[in-house]
Amino acid sequence: MSDASTHHADVAIIGAGPAGMAAASRLAEAGQVPVVFDLAPSPGGQIYRQLTAPQLGEDVMGRDYLRGRRLLERFERARIDYRPGSRVWWAKREGQGTTLGVLADRRSESWQVRRLIIASGAMERGWPFPGWQLPGVMQAGAGQILLKQGALIPDVPPVLAGTGPLLYLLAWQYLRAGCPPRLILDAAPRSRYATMLRRPLSTWHGRHYLLKGLGMLTTLRRAGVKVVHGIEGLRAEGNPHLQAVHYRRAGRWQSVDASMLLTHFGVVPEPQLSRGLGLPFDWHPSQQAFVPHREEASLAAAPGIWLTGDGAGIGGALNAEREGHLAALSILAAKGEPVENERTPLVQARRRELSARALLEALFRVPDGWLAAQPETTLVCRCEAVSLGELDAAMAQGAAGPGQLKAFTRCGMGPCQGRLCGESVTRLLAGHLGTTMNAAGYYQVRPPLHSITLGELADSAAPPAP
Amino acid sequence: MPQDFLIIGGGVVGMAVAYGLARRGRSVTVLDGHDDSLRASRGNAGLVWVQGKGLAMPRYAELSLHSSMAWPEFAEELTKRTGIDLEYEHCGGVDLCFDAKEAQARQTEYRALYAATPSLTAVRWEYLDREALREQLPGLGERVHGGTFSPHDGQCNPLYLLRALYAACLTLGVDYHPATPVTGIEASTTGFTAHSPQGSFSAERVILAAGLGARTLAPPLGLSGQVHPVRGQVLVTERFPPSGRLPTPQLRQTASGGYLIGDVLEDAGYDTGVTLETIHRLGQRAVQIYPELAQARLVRSWGALRVMTPDGSPLYEASRSCPGAYNLSCHSGITLAAFHARELAEAIDTDRLATIHGDFSGARFDVQATG
What we know:
The complex is a heterodimer.
Chain A: E1 7-14, H1 18-29, E2 35-37, H2 58-61, H3 63-66, H4 69-77, E3 81-83, E4 87-94, E5 97-104, E6 107-118, E7 122-124, E8 137-139, H5 140-150, E9 159-163, H6 165-176, E10 183-186, H7 195-198, H8 200-205, H9 207-222, E11 226-229, E12 231-237, E13 244-249, E14 252-257, E15 261-265, E16 267-269, H10 272-276, E17 281-284, E18 289-292, E19 300-302, E20 305-307, H11 316-334, H12 340-363, E21 379-381, E22 386-387, H13 388-396, H14 402-409, H15 422-433, H16 437-440, E23 452-453, H17 454-460
Parallel strand pairs in A: 1-2, 1-6, 2-3, 6-20, 8-15, 9-10, 9-15, 10-11
Antiparallel strand pairs in A: 4-5, 5-6, 7-16, 12-13, 13-14, 17-18, 19-20, 21-22
Helix pairs in contact in A: 1-4, 1-11, 6-9, 11-12
Chain B: E1 3-8, H1 12-23, E2 28-31, E3 47-48, H2 58-82, E4 93-97, H3 100-113, E5 126-129, H4 130-133, E6 146-150, E7 154-155, H5 158-171, E8 175-177, E9 184-188, E10 191-196, E11 199-208, H6 214-217, E12 228-239, E13 251-253, E14 258-261, H7 276-289, E15 297-308, E16 315-318, E17 325-329, H8 337-349, H9 353-356, H10 363-370
Parallel strand pairs in B: 1-2, 1-11, 2-8, 11-17
Antiparallel strand pairs in B: 3-7, 4-6, 5-6, 9-10, 10-11, 12-14, 12-15, 13-14, 16-17
Helix pairs in contact in B: 1-5, 1-8, 2-5, 2-8
């Protein structure tokens, strides 16, 4: 497609989080004018959401949030074709570049892009347990969005459960905002922290994260927030709204009354765009996630496509910023600019950062046997209400791949496009077939990558022939 | 003990015949491709459709009518065996026309077709204009001119049909091998051996139900396997409460509430992708049919390849040079499923495919080629 209604761009960037902002700014400083498509109305991504007009101060949000200001200001100063509120709902590799379908102001436009930097970030891992679909149960990331976007704080002390740094960050932020969590249920056993002794180098590189975490934990403890380590099972109960949270520790179930449960079982690369483009993924046993292939030095995943930030493998905000910068340098180098002196320190800093990451991955591992241990009534696909038992039955009837399982049960056919159940389905198939995550495979991702209405499609169609 | 039958292909054609043969007490092994192989069975619109089928071959129209009549009992039987509801409705259907010219051409075609053989005079159909259609299709838009209604048409959930066939085959002892792509088939004095990277499988007779795979697998067995891909693209919206609207090939509401939009014929080789241009156009047409759908969110889209024969009619062939080898190719595996599971399985089992269904053999293409 390249009729008159098609727009053209030499460089397009999808996402205006740390990676996207860094890439765009650096390219702009070299005289390029990249197009930046972003879902949100203002730049920052998930980490620096609403930082252009913060709803809460440093005392609540913490220093790391406000640190983004420097990057934000640089982005806002640069000459960039920045398009907020743009949904890239369609993407296809065509010829020398990529064609994008971009929805903005209720119209879908077609963009022909020569060089594409994908910086579309991470999403929270979908992690089934009984009752995770109940009103009153949310992912911690959603809790943080409410905090950043609207300074919304729970009106009752929430229970927080799961594993990962975000769990403690959110608990700390709630505490600072005057709403200390009722209870923190940590799936990591306390003994896990001995991991640090076995990885002295990673521990040293990760000392910033560890000290920050330790500080938050101490503050929470001092304020009287109870932390239970080594949760083996979790169950949310209530009708229709959450009333109680049950948790198992050392083989024994215990209960706590709650009307709000926030869970977090880590973040994984948001796969839709990269998978939709047909880029290959591999299961990363340490990140416990499917991660797209890319060239280590250039961050290129295919000719004309670069993958940066948490969407290419979880590395955190600082790493994302460096990767955005590195992708910009790859493009500038191809245009003949000398970039080697600028590259070297970035590559070194990135290596140190990723070494620290390995420690966090080990500390916050999710239990691999979790899904298989859930009761068969547990929903795996919340959109279409498909239970573990139904998936087991379909596998027993011959569904031997994610596509067939989806066809037989409707698992993954709902509005979330399989984002929440994709990993679970692969885990189930790998278990059933006695094979690896890679061999079990993943859903085939197809447009729409984001929501679009038929009316918006119709308005964007070429006028019918007379 | 060698198996009676090897069936190459675990789509809706292969599984219907596997089910039919297993039901007759035959031992059957099904070798299926990978999860991401080309699968028309997972990409179609789920119509059990009679009107307009067989314009080029009245025998095909008869077959479609016959199969649609057998569908209610077939669906009931499968549900009884497996507990799976196929969401089948024998409700009638409407093929829409968007202008007077199209309406005229359609009626002329149908009149000729349904007068072609005595048995086809039993086909009931009528042209209804937009006003008349509004009863069956409430909310119909101004851009629609009218459509042909036939009570023989209906709809089902093709994915649940496929699942029910799997479940039924399993209970009947069919030996199913997923992810076992067949690379070649060898004929011997005792039968046939199919080779795949997962090993070799033997049986007395072999049936190709391999969709577009027939192109390479059929000729070495003395079968034509003349098929080519014709791409369709389909959109599905979010769910809505049941509207009671009759299905149309252009658009239908599924039992789970989403609207399924399709009816595109494209020559795109083996590309199963969806294109921006076609998705826009399908959205536009859906809104023309039911303007209220402008608010509906698109949830899924996909492309899939029809298995098309040169004249669009089914290809049922028995090999002369390798007796016991058969090839089944058709793009109408849902409508014809009831026929495939009964009469076709029986004709193969009793080795009378060439006698009873000779009209559908590959010989008809040779005649055209030389004549």
